[in-house]
Amino acid sequence: xxxxxxxxxxxxxxxxxxxxxxxxxxxxxxxxxxxxxxxxxxxxxxxxxxxxxxxxxxxxxxxxxxxxxxxxxxxxxxxxxxxxxxxxxxxxxxxxxxxxxxxxxxxxxxxxxxxxxxxxxxxxxxxxxxxxxxxxxxxxxxxxxxxxxxxxxxxxxxxxxxxxxxxxxxxxxxxxxxxxxxxxxxxxxxxxxxxxxxxxxxxxxxxxxxxxxxxxxxxxxxxxxxxxxxxxxxxxxxxxxxxxxxxxxxxxxxxxxxxxxxxxxxxxxxxxxxxxxxxxxxxxxxxxxxxxxxxxxxxxxxxxxxxxxxxxxxxxxxxxxxxxxxxxxxxxxxxxxxxxxxxxxxxxxxxxxxxxxxxxxxxxxxxxxxxxx
Length: 373
Prior knowledge:
10-stranded antiparallel β-sheet, 21% helix
């Protein structure tokens, strides 16, 4: 419970820091709550649901920033995704549930995976590029003394990107580039946009960092284990995972037990691991089939486009949010993911159906650190 205590303590400190990343802290709280069973999430902040167990801690927050602070430099080979594209539209609408079966789509995508994962030669790097838009803004007005107050604040959609190079010899330097891209879109607020400052980049939103074994922040993380099997940002994590779909479902259920193991939580967790961009093809097939069996999974968009790539959006909704994974059914490629406001969003100013975040993921093998093709 030490990790949970530390995360809760950080959340309380965040309430006194106007520029602190609340979403990141919430993610740490939720991750710590499931730490006994869950793999580690070292650098890629997940978008977690806020459980009742930490609601009291969240009620302490007054005037804190709500953010997803893990953007990175824009890949040179990735097209700009604008909120007006099919997958990225922020205009609220009634959910358009397809007549297609989510199970059939994911089964077909799994069957279409016929690629063989490349084996890196000495000197080569696995290149992972994420181009994303995430919600950033502020929430305030709720205190421990007055928990029934209405949350106030505002939200923008902000463009970010990240590139990571993982060497064939993982004990050598990894490279990560992050940048704060120009795109920004107003999503809404309890105040006019003219009174809501646009989000500003924090230190961790930009820059180029190198670290052996992927340890880009040694000051905060200490020594990183090379080939850490508990960290899904390391290829070794995937070696020990089951390939059978039902066994994968049981793994997701066990891993999320501290958060209730509900279908939305399990689906969200499954999408987060896909988003790391390291899942091998043989595991991805079973992963799709496992997610397809969760109660409530539906096809929400038959032509969702991210950065010029079109696939089918399959999602699972709870009251606050719907999480979609976007897959190319013809190839089985994971294109990316998005989050959509549910019937009762956490920010009352966000209309249900509004896209509140999305990211596209591309991977390839390159011949040198810093190369993109």
